[in-house]
Amino acid sequence: MIEFHLDGRSKVATYLQLVQQVKQSLRLGLIDPGDQLPRVREVAEALAINPNTVLKAYRQLELEHLVAARPGVGTFVTRSLAGPALANQAALRHELIGWLSRARTAGLDQEDVVALVETTMRATFQEGLDGGADEGVDTA
Amino acid sequence: MSTALETRGLGKRYGRNWALRECSLAVPAGRVAGLVGPNGAGKTTLLHLAVGLLRPDAGSVRVLGDTPETGLPRIGFVAQDAPLYRDFHAADLITMGQKLNKRWDSGFARDRLTQLRIPLDRKVGKLSAGQRAQVALALALARKPDLLLLDEPVASLDPLARREFLQVLMGGVAEHGTTVLLSSHLVADLERVCDYLIVLNESRVQVLGGVEDLLATHKVLVGPRRADRAGPVAGVATVIRESHTDRQTSLLVRTHGPVLDPAWMARDLTLEDLVLAYLAEPSSGSLPGPDRLGIENGMEMTS
Amino acid sequence: MIWLTWRQHRLQAAYLLLGTLAVSAALFPIGRAMHSAFDNDGLAECLRTNGNPEFIRPAEGMGCGEFADLFMGRFGSLLPLGILLVLLPMLVGLFLGAPLVAREVEQGTHRLVWTQGVSRLRWATTKFGLITLFGLALAAGYAVLLTWWIEPLAAAAGSRLEWLVFDLQGVVPLAYTLFAIALGIAAGAVSRKLLPAMGITLAGFVVARVLVAWLGRPRYQEPIERRISVVTDRLPNELHGEWNLSSGVYDASGRQIVANGNRYCPPEALANDRAPGVCDPTTYNLEVYQPAGRFWTFQWIEAGIFAVLAAALLAFAVYRVRNRIS
Questions:
Q1: How far apart are CA C154 and CA C160, in angstroms?
Q2: Are the beta carbons of C109 and B75 separated by less than 8 Å?
Q3: Nearest to A48 among B31, B193, B268 (CB)
Q4: Cα–chain-centroid distance for residue B87?
Q5: B residues 284..303 contacting A (CB < 8 A)
Q6: Is B54 touching C (CB cutoff 8 A)?
Q7: How far apart are the first and last CA of chain B?
Q8: Each residue's pLDDT tens digit, C127-181
Q9: Rounded mean pLDDT of chain C?
Q10: What is the mean pLDDT of residues A36-47?
Q11: Complex ipTM, two decimals?
C-alpha cells in the first residue's frame, strides 16, 4: 500500500501531489493493477488534510482511467504505468549514476544538471511525440 | 439540507458596541469551513449565537435548517480553551455525556481516547492542554453531530498536539461527513483542512467562499512601476492591495478572467497571503454577490 | 442531571457534612453538662415547684432567681458562642450556594454543560433543587441539636424570644439556611465569579438578618403593655418568658421619669421613706413586651419571611441563568 506524504512548501496543490505520488508508485511498479489505494479516511487522518482533497485526487486518477472506485469497498488500480520492465529501469539507473558522476567531475552542479536534463528532455521527447509512445499519454 | 449553517443580517450588541453586525453567510453541508479574523472580530460571538449560548439582537441564525435550540442535539461544540470539569476523570465526562445526551456513543469516545493513549482514569486537570483538547473533541464527536463548531481549538497547543488534533478531526469528518466550522487565527493550519473560508473583520463578514475558488481567482501581479491607482487591468475585478518600489508595482487582485496582458507576471497566493491581505484592508471584501468596492473592469479581453 | 450534580458536588457535600458533625461533636458534651446542671442543681426543681408564675412575691422568697443566677454564672459565658452558631447558616450558603453558578461560569464549563442535551431550565432547577434539599437536611439536623442545646440557657436567661436564643431554636435556622443558599446562588448568577459571590452572600446575609431581627421581629404582633405601680409587693417573674422590648417609669401625667429601667418599692419602704419622691405611688412602671406564648407564631412568621425571600432569589437566579449568561 502506498504511504502518502505532503510537501508543505511546494506550490503544487495538495490533491495534485497525491495524484503525482500515485502515478510515481505506478511507474516504479510499487503498486499494480488490482491493488487497493489507501482509504480516504486513513489518508485524511494520517496527513491531517480535508477528506474532500483526497476524494478529488482519487477522482482525478479515475478520470485518467488509472483507478476505479468500488462503492463500499474502496478504490482500486486498474491500469499500470510501468512502461519498460523493472529490469530495464535498473540498467538505465545504473547508466544514469555513471553519467551523473561524470557531469559532476565536469563541474556541473545540481541546478546545471537539472537545467540540462530538462531542456534536452523537452527536445528529445518532443521528437518522440511525433514518432513514438510516451509516458502519460492515454493508450487505453 | 444543503446549508449546515446560515445567518441573515445577524447582529449581537453589548451595550452600545456591536460585536457582530449584518453578518450574512452560509456554510454548505459537508465542508470544513475556517472562520478567520483578528481578536475581537466576532468569531466567538458568531459561534455562540450558532450554538444557542447567545440570542441575536438583529437578524437570524439557522443551523441544519432549525433554530439553535431545536438543532442543538445535532450540533457538537467545543468552546475556547476546551472547558472541562477539571476534577472529573475522562471516564466521568463520558458518563456525563451519556446521562445528558440522547444520541451518544460511549464506545467511540473511549476507543478514540485509548488510541491516543490518554488515560481514562486520571483527573482531566492533570492532562496536558493537547490531551484536554482531544478529550473535548472526543466528547463532541461522541454526540454523532451533523455540524461541529470549534472555537480556536488549537490556539494554545504545541505543533505536535495541533497536528494530532487535526488528524482526529479529519478522521471524524471522513467517517461521518460532518460539517465543520472552526475558528482560528493560525491560517497555515487551516489551509490543509479547510475547503471553505469565512473572514470576519471589524465585526463584519469580509470574505466568503470556497478555498479552491478563492485561490484560483486571486493572484499577485508584478509589473513595471506605474502610477498609484492607475487605470484598470484586463481580467482584474478588484485590486485588494497595491504596493510600489521605485521600479516595480505589485498588485494583489481578484480576477474574473485570465490576465493575459504580457506586462504583468501572475503569481499564485497561499491562503495565508490572501487572508492577511484582506485583513489589512478592511474596506475591501470578497463576497458572493455584487462587488463592494474596486476598479471594475470595463474592457473584456476576448481570446 | 442528578448524577452530574452528585458527581460535581460530592466533595463539597462531604466537607460540609464533616464540618457539621464536628460542630455537633463539640457542642454535645457541653450540652450534656448544661442539661445535667439544669436538671440536677436545683433550677429545674424550683421552676417545677413554684409553677413559674407571672408574678412573684419576693417577700415570700418565691423566685428561682438565685438558681438562675447560679446557672448563668456557670454557663452564661457560652452565650457569645451563640454568635458563631448563628453564622452557621451563612457558612452553608457560602460553601454550598455561592459556588453553584459562580464557579461553573468562572471556569467556563457552563459552555460545556449547556450545550449538551439538557436545557438551562432543567439544569438550574435540578441543581438548585438538590443542593437546597441537601442544605435543608443538614440544617434540620443541626436545628434539632441547637434547640436541645440552648433549652436550659433559654430557660435560665428568661425568654425564648430573646436575641440569639430565638435565632438558634425551632424552625428559623432552616429558613436562614434556605435563604443563605438561595442568596449564594443568586449572587453567583450575578457576579459570575466565586469570590465576589461569596462577598455578596456574606454581606447580604448579615444585612438581611439584622434588619429583620431588629425592625421586624419586635413587631410581628402588636406588643402588650403592662403597667405596674412603683409601689408593689408583686414583681414580674423574670423567668416567666416575656420578651421585654422596653421598660420605663412614668409619672401620673405620662411623662417619663426613668428610661430603660424599673423601680419597685415594697409597701414597707413608704413608711421609712429615705429617698422622698422616689417611691411615689402615683408613678408606674410601663413595660412593653411580647408574651412567651407567641414564640411559635413568631417563629413561623420569621421563617416565612426568609422562605419567601429565598424563593424570590431562586427565581431570580433561574432567570439570570436562562437569559443573562453566555
A1: 5
A2: no
A3: B193
A4: 32
A5: none
A6: yes
A7: 40
A8: 999 999 999 999 999 889 888 888 888 888 778 888 888 998 889 999 999 999 9
A9: 87
A10: 93
A11: 0.86
Question: Do chain B and A touch: 3 or more Cβ pairs under 8 angstroms?
Answer: yes
Bridge partners of B11, per DSSP, are B58
Nearest chain B Cα distance for residue A8, angstroms = 9
* Residue B115 touches chain A, beta carbons under 8 Å: no
Non-local (6+) Cβ contacts of B94 within 8 A are B106, B109, B110, B120, B139, B142
C322 touches chain B (CB under 8 A): no
CA-to-CA distance for B112 and C217, rounded, in angstroms?
A: 63
**Residue B232 vs residues B222, B297, C271: alpha-carbon distances, Å:** 15, 6, 126
Topology adopted by domain B3-211: Rossmann fold (3.40.50)
The 3-state secondary structure of C30-52 reads HHHHHHHHHHHCCHHHHHHHHCC
C126 touches chain B (CB under 8 A): no
Question: What is the secondary structure of B67-97 as a DSSP string?
Answer: -HHHHGGGEEEE-TT----TTSBHHHHHHHH
C-beta atoms of B53 and C112 within 8 A: no
Closest residue in B to A8 (Cα) is: B192
Do residues B32 and A50 touch, judged by C-beta distance below 8 A?
A: yes
pTM: predicted TM-score of the whole model, two decimal places: 0.82
CB C212 within 8 A of CB C306: yes
B164 min Cα distance to partner chain A (Å)? 8
| pLDDT for A136 | 45
pLDDT digit string (tens) for B110-143? 999 999 999 999 999 999 999 999 999 999 999 9
Asked if B113 and B151 count as a contact pair (C-beta separation under 8 A), the reply is no
Beta strands (DSSP E) in B128-173 are 147-151
User: Which cell is B38 given?
Assistant: 483578528
Look at residue C60 in the predicted model and tell me its pLDDT. Answer: 64
Which grid coordinates belong to A121? 528532455
Q: Is C1 on the interface with B (CB under 8 A)?
A: yes
Contact call for B73 and C117, based on CB within 8 A: yes
Query: Of the candidates B53, B79, B101, which has its C-beta nearest C116's C-beta?
Result: B101
Identify which of C300, C297, C255 has the alpha carbon closest to the alpha carbon of residue C280.
C255
B30: contact with A, CB 8 A cutoff? yes
- Domain positions in chain B are 3-211, 217-280
In terms of DSSP bridges, do strands C256-259 and C243-250 run parallel, antiparallel, or are they unpaired?
Answer: antiparallel
pLDDT digits (tens, 9 = 90+) for C88-99: 899 999 999 999
Q: Does A12 touch chain B (CB under 8 A)?
A: no
Asked if A51 reaches chain B (Cβ–Cβ under 8 Å), the answer is yes
- On average, the pLDDT of chain B sits at 87
Cell 493513549 -> residue: B117
